[in-house]
């Protein structure tokens, strides 16, 4: 059974950096794209970044472009989200997601579609 477990969230100050990790347990039997989403209180879930199996294709939402970086280590079955220059508007629960159906692309994650979701990790940015 596939499970995703995020870690690395916490309380930071505006301007700080933070790195989130998401580890996959179980076997997928195929390649998969991975991505990060977030949801702030009283707001819709927002897709942030996604990366294809090979790492050759990525997607960044305008709200995080230039500040957030996604990377993955397939041998460790881990995806990372590096977040720089954090602001209070980045406060949210951050979720990683896995898509089994996009071969080596990120199209489904770009549309907010995924096959598996993590339980989320809270990121709070104080001003």
Residue-averaged pLDDT, rounded?
A: 95
Q: How many DSSP helices?
A: 1
Largest sheet: 7 strands, mixed
Radius of gyration: 14 Å
Shape: globular
Sheet/helix structural class: mainly beta
**What is the quaternary state of this protein?**
single chain
Structure summary, number of beta strands? 11
Q: N-to-C SSE series?
A: EEEEEEEEEHEE
Helix content: under 10%
Question: How much of the sequence is in beta strands?
Answer: over 45%
Low-pLDDT parts are none
From the N-terminal CA to the C-terminal CA, the straight-line distance is 40 Å
Explain how this protein is built:
With 127 residues, the protein is mainly beta. Helix content is 3%, strand content 48%. The protein has one helix at residues 107-110; strands at residues 3-7, 10-13, 18-25, 33-39, 46-51, 58-60, 68-73, 78-83, 92-99, 116-117, 121-126. The strands form two sheets. Strands 2, 4, 5, 6, 9, 10 and 11 form a seven-stranded mixed beta sheet that branches. A four-stranded antiparallel beta sheet has the order 1-3-8-7, with no helix packed on it. The longest helix has 4 residues, at 107-110. The termini are far apart. The mean pLDDT is 95.
Please describe the structure with a list of short key phrases separated by commas or semicolons.
single chain, 127 residues, mainly beta, seven-stranded mixed β-sheet, 11 strands, globular
How do the strands and helices of this protein lay out in sequence?
Layout: E1 3-7, E2 10-13, E3 18-25, E4 33-39, E5 46-51, E6 58-60, E7 68-73, E8 78-83, E9 92-99, H1 107-110, E10 116-117, E11 121-126
Parallel strand pairs: 2-11
Antiparallel strand pairs: 1-3, 3-8, 4-5, 4-9, 5-6, 7-8, 9-10, 9-11
């Amino acid at each position: 059974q596939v499970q995703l477990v995020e870690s690395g969230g916490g309380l930071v100050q505006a301007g700080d950096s933070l790195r989130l990790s998401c580890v996959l347990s179980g076997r997928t039997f195929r390649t998969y794209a991975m991505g990060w989403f977030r949801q702030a209180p009283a707001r819709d879930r927002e897709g942030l970044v996604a990366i294809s199996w090979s790492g050759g294709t990525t997607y960044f939402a305008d709200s995080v472009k230039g500040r957030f970086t996604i990377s993955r280590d397939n041998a460790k079955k881990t995806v990372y989200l590096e977040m720089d220059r954090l602001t209070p508007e980045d406060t949210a629960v951050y979720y990683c997601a896995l898509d089994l159906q996009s071969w080596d692309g990120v199209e489904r994650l770009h549309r907010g579609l995924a096959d598996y979701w993590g339980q989320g990790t809270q990121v709070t940015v104080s001003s």
